Amino acid sequence: MIVILDNIRSIHNVGSIFRTADAVGAKKIYLGGITPAPIDRFGLENKALTKVALGAEKSVKWEKTDNISKVIDFLKKKEYGIVIIEQNKKAISIFDNKLSKFKKDKIAIIMGAEVDGVSKEILNKADYIIEIPMQGKKESLNVSVAFGIAVYQLINN
Description:
Helix content is 33%, strand content 20%. By secondary structure, the chain is an alpha/beta fold. Strands 3-2-1-6-4-7-5 form a seven-stranded parallel beta sheet.
């Protein structure tokens, strides 16, 4: 599994996603746009992120990228299924059986910014856009919580 984070602003959410990515055995995390990295542009440790990640930033490979579109194209050539977790008119439920066609080690999961989501350009590259059905009055979950729910469903589907 590969994880791609697109313009996620919160340092704490990124640290939490690193921990969950480690827990599910993710191979790598790509950090796109404004998504903070464990090491900042000055080569210094991002202490707020590493405090939440609890060492997962060392056990999961990561790479900062300015072009998520190119990363997706590269992964598609390597036969990865591209799944975006996003509320969208084209989204299917994370519980849909169509998702079982992906090999668990050949899936790339993309998470976008909590307010703006994933860009239309990136959405158009997805094999599937999936969402978590909501039961209450709130329309969405925190991005790191949504990531945890979705990845565990995907690897156990």
